[in-house]
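Extended Data, panel c. Modelled sequence:
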Amino acid sequence: MQDLNRRSYEAIAADWDDARTASGAAETRLIERLLEGVAPGARVLDLGCGTGRPVAQALAARGLRITGVDQCEAMLARARARLPGHDWLLSRLEDFVPEGVFAAAVAWDSLFHLPRAEHAGVVRRVRAGLAPGGGFLLTVGGSEHPAFTDTMFGHPFFYDSHPPEAARALLAAEGFAVEHGEFLNLPTPGRDKGRYALLARAA
């Protein structure tokens, strides 16, 4: 399924970059909360960084050093051009092992592209790479549902996620203290399964 997502993101990189130009109000507020107490120059991990806009761009504007990870080379090429001087790594999230210590980490709208059986391993490796008290901001699905495929810009994408309470329990089991959670959009009886943001700290 990751190959499906990689091929689809390669195909829509330009459309995605044109559409995803700015953070919403909730995203901006949560990033600011994540970065409370993080000094300029600190290293921040962006898992599923895409084209570097808007999340990595917001981090760079605060003087932070970004390590962005994505499995799509077409996305990373845009990130490298947009934000030179940062580290942009080609890797599947389920294979990536952080090197060194990070002050914070973000996995915004990326973890739910992996089969949920892979989520604990990703969270465990993020925890191992964070400084004590380092924050981890991520999004998960907003409801319980089986894995599914949907389309974006006419291309298929795979989705799977633990619901919010199970994601909270997973974070706690892997050494995080959940600080905050909120719905970004509620699930509907139709195709929208919902979206939930979590901010956790390395315990």
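The mean pLDDT is 96. This feature is highlighted in the accompanying rendering.
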